[in-house]
Structure formats: C-alpha cells, structure tokens
Design a protein that fits this description.
CATH class of the domain at 343-520: Alpha Beta
Structural class: alpha+beta
Strand order of the largest sheet: 2-3-1-6-7-8-9
Strand content: 5-15%
CATH architecture of the domain at 343-520: 2-Layer Sandwich
Order of helices and strands: HHHHHHHHHHHHHHHHHEHHEEHEEEHEEE
Number of strands: 9
CATH topology of the domain at 343-520: Alpha-Beta Plaits
Helix content: 55-70%
Distance between the termini: 113 Å
Radius of gyration: 43 Å
Shape: elongated
Largest sheet: 7 strands, mixed
Length: about 525
C-alpha cells in the first residue's frame, strides 16, 4: 500500500509540486557558486516573497542592527544560506496553504506547523546549533505528508476524529502503511530534491531517543521532536498545558534544564506577534499565551529557589572549607604551645611589613622580649610550670598589643612583636604596658608562685633612621635586649643610631623613674 501511495503522490495533480520560484531556490541552494545576485534575481520574481524577506531581515526575530533598504541588503544581513532557507519556507507554505484537506483540520495543521517550527528553532538556539533556519524549515515541513495523503487518498483518515492528536495520526498511519508520516514526508521532500540533510532530520524526528545526540543530524531531529511536542501542548486543551511534562523530554533529548526551557517558552511567546505577521496566521489566543507564560515563570521561580538553596549550600560548604583551610594554615604558622605565631610566619610578616613601610614611607617598630632568668623557673618548678608561664606571657602580650600587630614566639622564652605604622614613641608605650602587666602577674604553679619579668629591646625603621633590611631591623631589636639585661633586666632598651660612636652601638634605656645609656656589647655571655 505504501508503494501505491508514493506512486499516487508522484502523479498527483491535486497536490502540487513546489512552485517555480521554490524550485529555483532549491537549485540555487545546492549551487556551490551561489551569489547574492542570483538569489536576489530569483526571489524578486515573487513580490510577496521579497516583502517577507525584507520584513524578516528588519524584524526583532533577528535583532540586526543594520536596517535593510532593499532585497540585496536583506540577503547580506541574513546571510545567503539563511535567506534561501527562509525564502523556501515562505514559498512552500504559501503554496500548500492553498491546498484544502478533506479530513484534516486545515487551520490547526498550519498553526501547529508554524508553532512547531518556531519552537524547534528556539530550542536549537538554546543548544547553540548553527543554521537555525534549516531546522525551522525541516520542522515546518515535517508533517507535509499528512496533507499529501489526505489529498490523494481522501478516505485515509476518515476513521479518525476531526481533532485527532499527533500521536493518534501516527498510530493510524503505522497500522495502515507500516510507517508514519515522518518517513513519508522525508521521502516526499527528497522527491522534490530538497537537501538530504533536511530529509534525514525529518525522517528521524519521530524517534529522537534513537538518534545520536553527538551528531548534527541527531540534535536537529531532537529539536524537531521537542518542537512538535511543544506545539501539540500549546494547541491542546488548557488543562493539558503542562510545561513540566515537556521539561522531561527537553532534559532527556537535549539536556535543556527546566529554567532554560522556561526562558525558551517566554521567547517563543514574545516572538509570536512577528511570526504571525510573517505567515499571516493567528497562532495562539491571549489566554493560551498567558497560561504558558505563567508556567514558564513558575519554572524559572522554582529554578531560582533551587539556585538560592544551592548557593546557600555552596556558601556553607565554602565557609566550612575556608574555616578548615584557615585552621590548617593557622596550625602551620602558629606556635603549638602558646598559640601565637611561630618563627617561620614571623619572618614572612616582618619581610612583608618592611617592604610596605619602605614603599609607603611610614614607620615600622619591632619589640624583642626575653623573659628574665626563665631557666630558674624550669629548674625550680619543672618544665610544665615553665610552659604555663610562657602561655600566660603570650596572652598578656596579646592583650596589650593592637589587632593589627603580629606577636610571635621567636624561640624558647623569646617573643617578637611587629608594630606596623608605629613610631618609637608609640612602640615604647606598648612596651612599657607589657612590662607593667608582667610585673603584676602572679603565676600560680605547683610548688609556689612565679613572677616572670622580661627585658625588652626596641628598634624602629623610619625616614630619619632607616634600616637596610628587615633582618637588620630585627637584629637591632635583639641587640637592644642585651643592653636591657646588662642594665638589670625588667626594662626596655631602645636602639638609637644617632648616638653611635666611632665604634660600637649606643642604646637608650627607659625604666619608670630612671634614664640610662650603655654601650651594647656584641656578646650575650652571662646574661639571662
């Protein structure tokens, strides 16, 4: 029966072949030497077709910034491939809309075809597939065999209801022919000498799951299938208009998420007025448009809520990760006993702050603290007592300094405090507060009470007394501790390069109620 039907279609006078203009456009499309002049000449023979090409070139559908004043400009703006494909679409639709079917709902057929083509093009655009107009044309013509069958064999669909669904048509066709109208449409388009790729896309459009999604033909066929489902949904009963059902196939066939589908449906509805003008056809009523927009926005809202939840979860995970990273970093740069920074991190901070002070022209002070006679604490009360005193000392220093200062354990009972942006006067005040707090602190340890004082050395880098490097600055503060020890401990000694003699280094000492100077020796023997 299928072969008889094909022979009828070949000989049918009441189902016309493509018009002359369309046939010429088909020939031009396969010509490797196609040019604007040839295409413009062919299209200009049909004034209505020329007007449509001009309109679409200047329409919001293509959002071209350059306005076309004539057909040749429109062809350049659209591109020859797109222009010839669109021209063929308008020409074929113009021809076959004049065919009156005897059983098929003629108006619904063309509304469905145009909606399907518009949707397929939008879905292809979402997937960033090239040659959108080829998909538009294939979708527009994928059901052309339905009209052809109805014309050459008027009783073929008589057992169906007047408003039979697309799925019912397919079941009926397969039961009588062994194939559905997609296969017959592909054959008919091939008989009219349309491109093989277009025919193949149409043939596979009813079996999207069996196509290869990694090929151009497979993706195109899936766009056609989804466009067809979309059109069927839009033209169905309002109660059956469910984007959630379409979303399942959109995700399965093309990997289009629900939020992207919502955006796509909004675009389809927004383009409807222009599409209706181009094809002189009313496609959807206002109620249908409102219903689909409402559902599209619901999909977007749901997705936005999901995004908010995902972002919240991601932020919480990021915060946990950052907290863990900070914890590990702190563990790596902190002294295990006292919790202040370790020697390695001190070197890094001091080097960075010194470079900043040099570049910015602001002062940088360093305090070096060494607990007095700390060895006696360990020898008398034991190392656990010594550890407790070190921890308490670190906490006292942290309580006194600013948040922007860096406190580090230099080694043993030695601590270094980096004071960015602070001159010698301000640094001295902080040093004296540390000394006062240490003098008043009574450490209860097993076996007695310990008072641990410290000797402090101060050095300041500023424009009047610059240092060569961070290491020299730290060395000056360290050497100042020597003088503090020699002057009786429990005091602060401040490095003063102005009082440098010919040999040696002079340091000034500050102690409550006293002032003193001494030559800094280069050894620390006997000092504790």
């Amino acid at each position: 029966m299928l072969e008889k039907l094909r022979n009828k279609l070949k000989l049918a006078a009441n189902f016309p072949s493509p018009p002359a203009v369309a046939q010429q456009i088909i020939e031009l499309a396969s010509d490797p030497e196609i040019d604007v002049v040839k295409v413009a000449k062919a299209m200009s023979r049909d004034p209505a077709l020329t007007a449509k090409i001009m309109r679409i070139a200047n329409s919001p559908l293509y959002s071209k910034q350059r306005k076309s004043e004539n057909l040749r400009q429109a062809l350049v703006v659209l591109g020859l491939n797109a222009a010839t494909t669109l021209a063929l679409s308008f020409s074929l639709v113009g021809t076959y809309k004049s065919v009156r079917s005897s059983r098929i709902d003629y108006s619904r057929y063309w509304r469905r075809a145009i909606l399907s083509a518009s949707a397929a093009r939008t879905f292809a655009e979402l997937k960033r597939i090239d040659a959108l107009e080829d998909i538009f044309l294939a979708s527009l013509l994928q059901d052309i065999a339905v009209l052809a069958i109805d014309r050459v064999q008027p009783d073929f669909y008589e057992d169906l209801e007047a408003h039979a669904s697309h799925a019912q048509l397919i079941v009926h066709e397969v039961s009588r022919l062994g194939v559905d109208h997609a296969a017959l449409s592909a054959w008919l388009l091939g008989f009219w000498k349309l491109p093989e790729s277009l025919c193949q896309t149409v043939e596979w459009s009813h079996a999207p799951a069996r196509t290869d999604a990694h090929t151009r033909a497979g993706l195109s066929a899936r766009c056609l299938a989804l466009g067809s489902d979309c059109a069927e949904m839009l033209l169905g009963d309002r109660t059956s208009l469910k984007l959630s059902d379409l979303s399942v196939n959109a995700e399965s066939w093309l990997g289009i998420s629900s939020d992207s589908l919502g955006e796509g449906m909004e675009k389809i509805v927004a383009q409807l007025p222009e599409t209706e003008r181009l094809f002189d056809e009313t496609l959807l009523d206002e109620d249908a448009c409102a219903a689909i927009l409402e559902q599209a926005r619901e999909l977007l809202l749901i997705r936005n809520l999901q995004n908010i939840q995902q972002v919240g979860a991601l932020q919480r995970m990021t915060e946990r990760f950052e907290a863990r990273t900070t914890e590990l970093e702190n563990k790596h740069r902190r002294d295990a006993l006292t919790g202040v920074f370790n020697r390695g991190h001190l070197d890094h901070v001091l080097d960075a702050e010194f470079r900043s002070a040099v570049a910015g022209g602001w002062p940088l002070s360093v305090l070096f603290a060494d607990l007095d006679r700390f060895k006696q604490v360990n020898d008398t009360y034991g190392h656990p007592a010594g550890d407790a005193v070190l921890i308490a000392t670190a906490n006292i220093i942290l309580d006194v300094v600013r948040d922007t200062d860096c406190v580090a354990r230099y080694g043993g009972e030695e601590f270094v405090i980096i004071l960015p942006g602070l001159g010698s006067d301000g640094a001295k005040k902080i040093g004296e507060r540390i000394l006062a707090r240490l003098r008043s602190a009574h450490h209860e340890v097993a076996g007695g009470t310990v008072i641990a004082t410290a000797s402090l050395g101060l050095a300041t880098h500023h424009s009047a007394t610059p240092f060569e490097s961070a290491a020299k600055l730290l060395e000056a503060a360290d050497r100042s501790v020597y003088a503090a020890k020699r002057q009786g401990r429990n005091r602060l000694m401040s490095y003063d390069p102005k009082e440098l003699p010919a040999t040696g280094q002079i340091l000034s000492a500050e102690k409550p109620g006293h002032g003193m100077q001494d030559v800094l020796k280069h050894t620390r023997a006997g000092v504790g």
